[in-house]
Structures are given as C-alpha cells and as structure tokens.
Amino acid sequence: MLGGTDLTACNDAQLTALRRDRIGYVFQSFNLLPQLTAEQNIELPARLAGRAVDSNWRAMLVDLLGIGKRLRHRPTELSGGQQQRVAVAARCSGGPR
C-alpha cells in the first residue's frame, strides 16, 4: 500500500504513473540536465508530469535550501552541495501531498 493504493493490484502503466506522480528520487549523481538552469531543472519534473508549478511553494523551497542566488546558473556552475539541493528542490517541486 502506498497512499491508499494497493501496489500489487497495479499494472505497469499504473506503477509508472505512481512513481512519476507520487515518488521523488534524488540519485547520488543528481541527474540534473546540464543545458538547463537550476530553476529549469527544479521545474522540469512537475512540467513533465503535466502539473503546474506552484511559484509560492517553489520560492519557499528555494529559500529553505539557500539556492535563490544560483537559480540562473547551470549545474556545471554549481558546487556539489548546490547541485544536490537543486535536485532535492526538483523532486519536491510538485508541492506537498
């Protein structure tokens, strides 16, 4: 069970949608797209899932994680810790559930 969903009753498409929409992963390599800015990387998961980006929620995350001054930078211009915080913000960009 995950949030009221019986995982054993889900088919592959349902499991894919569940992973995309309800589970956020932060990998050790962060998997940020190098051609996008930090801000674009943060917004990408929500946009790919067809969800609007809540600008208030995103602003709170960015402030909490201390990356507000680095949003226009590409991943190669960020420290490892900053990249990790961008990845965390990206996984949380869809808002609380």
Helix and strand topology:
Elements: H1 12-22, H2 38-48, H3 55-65, H4 80-92
Helix pairs in contact: 2-4, 3-4
Short précis:
The protein is mainly alpha-helical and 97 residues long. 47% of the residues lie in helices and 0% in strands.
Structure write-up:
- With 97 residues, the protein is mostly helical.
- The chain has a single domain, classed as Rossmann fold, CATH 3.40.50.300.
- It contains 4 helices and no strands.
- The protein has helices at residues 12-22, 38-48, 55-65, 80-92.
Assembly state of the chains shown: single chain
| CATH third-level topology | Rossmann fold
Secondary-structure arrangement, i.e. CATH architecture? 3-Layer(aba) Sandwich
Q: How much strand?
A: under 5%
Query: So how many helices?
Result: 4
Helicity, as a percent range:
40-55%
Distance between the termini: 16 Å
